[in-house]
Amino acid sequence: MSDPIQERPQIYLLTPPAFDLDSFPARLAEVLDAHAVACVRLALASKDEDVLGRAADACREVCHARDVAIVIEAHVALAERHGLDGVHLTDGSRSVRKVRKLLGDDAIVGAFCGASRHDGLNAGESGADYIAFGPVGDTDLGDGTQAEKDTFQWWSEVVEVPVVAEGALTVEIVKEFAKITDFFAIGDEIWNTEDPAKSLGAFIAAMDAGLSA
Known about the structure:
Blueprint: E1 10-14, H1 24-34, E2 39-42, H2 49-64, E3 69-73, H3 76-81, E4 86-89, H4 96-103, E5 108-112, H5 117-125, E6 130-133, H6 149-158, E7 163-166, H7 171-177, E8 183-186, H8 188-191, H9 196-212
Parallel strand pairs: 1-2, 1-8, 2-3, 3-4, 4-5, 5-6, 6-7, 7-8
């Protein structure tokens, strides 16, 4: 495993939970053209299959034109149907093995494991390509449990499966976690601003500051 101190964490870009299909693909393209992004997660809150399918097609076109992978949150069947690169599972380690078998070795299968190291280890052993822990920042969403910095420190030293920090990120948190995570999952943190590309640039600058500290 390469030394995390020497490498800037990669950007894992989340879409907003809802967006206008007439305007968002262009905003996404602008951000992808401005910064290097490793992967995009279609993270819509909608349960409408048609809405999800049309969003998947539009975002896939933008991402694949720029050689950026795109996964969908939770909806395994839609990942296959719409030619996406994989799926981000939200139930920890529970369905990793089943989904890996279904989608095959080439698909991206990631698992969100909250603040549980144990669940993260199980997900990794079951075949997950990455483990996401969060939220790392202060939020009233969920039960309020945060993924601690110690978890990322321990993971980066002990486990080879890449780790993702997500949830209520700030530039201060990104600077603090830059040496101990492989990816930052950034979404509403930039989409809720006037200039998402510029806002993402500020997070990247914070990573660099953290790495040089």
